[in-house]
């Protein structure tokens, strides 16, 4: 994992920018180690760490005996032209991906201060999941559900669609995303570990609260999304 501010992290970011801007086009071969070391004025050890970080992030691929090539993963596309809350699993399936999720943590906690006015409950169910596309982690999701209404949610199969589980278990007919905020965040140590990216990797941060057809709060939370595998369409 690269540390923000370290020399090889700086080299990583410069190469990343060259990829994003098209200086190194998709499927093109990067200059060799000697040329890149000279270009960035760093040792080969530092350069190799930078290339490893980019390889871990899926931006480049090293082919033994051939070289290092720029790669561009397919993206999951999400349409946000309406307030309808979309299931990540269903969106990924619609795009032709194999989607799954893994529960990292599920526990009852005191309602965070910032959610007390919204939830109007003293206890909250916190669920943290990682979403995978074709076995690759693409989104870290941290959601809060008001208790006691969603006390039984822990028993549901959350390796699949959360929204389908909510509709079936609680007879919810419609889920609406309310007050969605999208910004950019840099992966910290925990987020980088869960998403198998380098520390400082750019993530899309989505903050949202979701209500049912009766305007009752269902959950609020944050989604940390791998930026090069996901895109929003308005």
UniProtKB/TrEMBL annotation:
<dbReference type="Pfam" id="PF00392">
    <property type="entry name" value="GntR"/>
</dbReference>
<dbReference type="InterPro" id="IPR036388">
    <property type="entry name" value="WH-like_DNA-bd_sf"/>
</dbReference>
<protein>
    <submittedName>
        <fullName>GntR family transcriptional regulator</fullName>
    </submittedName>
</protein>
<dbReference type="InterPro" id="IPR011663">
    <property type="entry name" value="UTRA"/>
</dbReference>
<feature type="domain" description="HTH gntR-type">
    <location>
        <begin position="5"/>
        <end position="73"/>
    </location>
</feature>
<dbReference type="InterPro" id="IPR000524">
    <property type="entry name" value="Tscrpt_reg_HTH_GntR"/>
</dbReference>
<dbReference type="InterPro" id="IPR036390">
    <property type="entry name" value="WH_DNA-bd_sf"/>
</dbReference>
<dbReference type="InterPro" id="IPR028978">
    <property type="entry name" value="Chorismate_lyase_/UTRA_dom_sf"/>
</dbReference>
<dbReference type="InterPro" id="IPR050679">
    <property type="entry name" value="Bact_HTH_transcr_reg"/>
</dbReference>
<keyword id="KW-0238">DNA-binding</keyword>
<keyword id="KW-0805">Transcription regulation</keyword>
<dbReference type="Pfam" id="PF07702">
    <property type="entry name" value="UTRA"/>
</dbReference>
<keyword id="KW-0804">Transcription</keyword>
């Amino acid at each position: 994992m690269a540390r923000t501010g370290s020399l090889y992290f700086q080299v990583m970011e410069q190469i990343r920018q060259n990829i994003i801007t098209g200086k190194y086009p998709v499927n093109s071969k990067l200059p060799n180690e000697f040329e890149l070391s000279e270009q960035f004025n760093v040792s080969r050890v530092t350069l190799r760490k930078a290339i490893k970080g980019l390889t871990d992030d899926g931006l480049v691929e090293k082919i033994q005996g051939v070289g290092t090539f720029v790669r561009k993963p397919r993206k999951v596309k999400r349409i946000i032209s309406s307030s309808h809350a979309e299931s990540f699993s269903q969106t990924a399936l619609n795009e032709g991906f194999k989607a799954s999720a893994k529960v990292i943590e599920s526990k009852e906690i005191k309602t965070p201060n910032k959610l007390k006015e919204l939830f109007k409950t003293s206890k909250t169910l916190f669920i943290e999941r990682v979403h995978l596309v074709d076995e690759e982690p693409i989104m870290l999701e941290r959601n809060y559900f008001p208790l006691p209404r969603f006390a039984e949610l822990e028993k549901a199969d959350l390796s699949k669609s959360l929204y389908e589980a909510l509709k079936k278990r609680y007879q919810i007919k419609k889920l609406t995303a309310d007050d969605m905020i999208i910004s950019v965040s840099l992966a910290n140590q925990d987020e980088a570990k869960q998403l198998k990216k380098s520390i400082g990797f750019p993530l899309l941060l989505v903050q949202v609260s979701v209500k049912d057809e009766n305007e009752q709060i269902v959950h609020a939370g944050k989604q940390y999304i791998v930026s090069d595998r996901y895109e929003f369409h308005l």
